[in-house]
From TrEMBL, chain A:
This is Fe-S metabolism protein SufE. It comes from Persicobacter diffluens. It comes from the Bacteria. Transmembrane segments: none annotated. Belongs to the SufE family.
Length: 145, 408
């Protein structure tokens, strides 16, 4: 399996092919969203909603064999596309891998110029929630050890 | 186009239209939110600050005099624009929201009592709901709501049923910002007056499209915003019947609105100054004069003819797209087109259009009760103005068609 940074580099490479064409980039994000596996309805509950997102975003995390499996969904397609990138990077990783990662792909692809500032804040909230889950699972593992 | 306006010549007067957004020529279809400003309006602002910036109504010097004259000239133009009986019956506000709040706070608090009823409609903007709700809460009055039919038109029989001897205020918009519906306000005013109610018309979406004749309508209060009539932001008009305005208490206290102040008490100035406390937004008032004159020169009938042609064209072209849903199909509409695509969130359509340089509004348009009634989160709203073209609509349609295709 590719490392987190290898996945980030792959995403940067994919975006570089669009050479800054906003229309193509937006469509690409939207298409990634269309391919995102939908979250089961029972998980679309208020305690899974991430606060601070303009769209509604649900995020669920499970620890399986020391790896966190994230699943998430949103009511808007563009946000689903953003989620799908985050899951590609963070899902099926150990808490340590997640916590020790520095995210640089958003800056490299110029995400702040693609999505609105409100949506950027939402994206930051999602990343924060992912890291909080990693911290919680790490703390739990230490407590059980 | 089948009307007399030279649209290219009109476009040339709007500097902001001539730019690229996201690498594409800007297509500005968010005119119901705010219209762009012609060069004459920008020049008026520029000339004021460069040439005669000064506080009005008080200075005994040449600049103050010039500024005061220009300021009061706008009031005269506005009175003509609305066909008010006299310029004093036109009060400068910050905009529609401010005007409605002024009426609710001043007229409303003076006249509304427990058990009274205020009628609004399902189509109202939050600005024409919340001030009345606050007033009802304070006074123990009740808010009643006129329902709409499937086309997004007010159900007049239901309105008539709501009108009783308890009805004190009817507050409705002339045209809906979310659906474009034009409401039969002349008829509504007549019916409301028959039960002794006072009528407040929210003209935020109508004054740029229709000749407003407050006297012919017999309307008690009419409010609108300059920024939706090719004028500056932060300025609006409130027209009121003289008897009502004279009886009403001031809205805010301060300079300008007084006759004489002592610590024992204060006597208030005459209308309109009674309602214009503090240094007003002089520059924007003066520039609004240019906007109204610009609109009157083109003629609202010609403007409306062009906009109606754009609306019909957009309707026709968009209706060919699989999955398209239209919200609001009233027989009488201003150039507002609310729509969605089956299975797609309005935000996604908005963002995809933005990437093509097309500016539309997405969301609830400050009409959450209406969205709830329609059972939707929001719509995509394209609203057309005199400077828009069919070619621009083609760009919009291509963008929406592209999203529909991706969903297929
Ligand atoms: C129908 C209607 N009423 C009121 C308003 C509020 O106007 P303003 O924000 O200029 O006060 C708007 C503006 O969107 C509107 O469309």
């Amino acid at each position: 399996m590719a490392t987190i940074n290898e996945v980030q580099d792959a995403i940067i490479e994919e975006f570089s092919l669009f050479a800054g064409d906003r229309e193509a980039i937006t469509e690409y994000i939207f298409e990634m969203g269309l391919k995102l596996a939908p979250l089961a309805e029972e998980h679309k509950v208020s305690q899974n909603v991430i606060k601070g997102c303009q769209s509604t975003v649900w995020l669920v995390a499970d620890l399986v064999d020391g790896k966190i499996i994230f699943s998430a969904d949103s009511n808007t397609g563009i946000t689903k596309g953003l989620i799908s990138m985050l899951l590609r990077i963070f899902s099926d990783r150990s808490p340590e891998e997640i916590l020790n990662t520095e995210l640089y792909f958003l800056e490299k692809i110029g995400m702040s110029g693609i999505i609105s500032s409100q949506r950027s804040n939402g994206l930051t909230a999602m990343i924060k929630q992912i890291k909080l889950y990693a911290l919680a699972f790490q703390a739990k593992a230490k407590a059980n050890a | 186009m089948s009307n007399t306006l030279d649209i290219q010549q009109i476009r040339a007067q709007f500097p902001v239209l001539h730019q690229e957004v996201n690498g594409k020529p800007l297509v500005y279809f968010d005119n119901a939110a705010t219209t762009q400003k012609p060069q004459v309006v920008i020049d008026a602002l520029d000339n004021y600050y460069k040439g005669y910036n000064s506080n009005i109504h008080r200075g005994a010097h040449a600049l103050a005099d010039k500024a005061t004259q220009a300021f009061e000239e706008t009031r005269k133009t506005a009175a003509k624009f609305l066909n008010a009986e006299s310029p004093e019956q036109v009060i400068f506000t910050k905009g529609t929201t401010d005007g409605i709040n002024l009426i609710a706070s001043s007229y409303g608090r003076q006249n509304i009592q427990a058990g009274d009823e205020i009628i609004v409609s399902t189509l109202e903007h939050h600005s024409n709901i919340v001030p009345w709700q606050m007033l009802c809460q304070e006074k123990g009055a009740t808010l009643k709501v006129i329902p709409i039919n499937a086309k997004g038109e007010l159900i007049m029989e239901e309105f008539e049923k709501l009108l009783t001897a308890n009805t004190k205020i009817v507050a409705v918009n002339h045209a809906s910002n979310a659906l474009g519906t034009v409401n039969p306000i002349a008829e509504m005013i007549e019916k409301a007056h028959a039960v002794g109610a006072v009528v407040v018309v929210d003209g935020a979406q109508s004054a740029s499209h229709f000749d407003i004749d407050v006297q012919a309508l017999g309307v008690d209060f009419f409010v609108t915003s300059a920024h939706k009539i090719y004028g500056p932001t932060g300025i609006g008009l409130l027209y009121g019947k003289r008897v009502l305005l004279e009886e009403m208490p001031p809205y805010q206290g301060g300079g300008e609105m007084i006759k004489e102040v002592s610590f024992d008490g204060t006597t208030f100035n005459e209308i309109p100054y009674k309602f214009e406390a503090g240094t007003p937004n002089i520059a924007d008032v003066i520039a609004f004069d240019a906007a109204m004159k610009w609109v009157q020169d083109l003629g609202k009938e010609a403007i409306r003819a062009h906009e109606a042609e754009l609306l019909a064209y957009a309707n026709e072209k968009l209706s060919e797209i699989p999955g398209i849903i239209f919200y609001g199909t009233a027989a009488e509409k201003v150039s507002v087109l609310s729509f969605g695509l089956e299975g797609v969130h309005p935000f996604d359509i908005g963002m995809m259009l933005d990437a093509r340089g097309v500016a539309v509004r997405t969301g609830h348009h400050c009409t959450q009760p209406l969205m709830k009634h329609l059972g939707i989160e929001g719509t995509v709203r394209a609203s057309f103005s005199v400077y828009n073209t069919k070619e621009e609509i083609d760009t919009l349609v291509q963008g929406v068609a592209r999203v529909a295709k991706m969903m297929a």
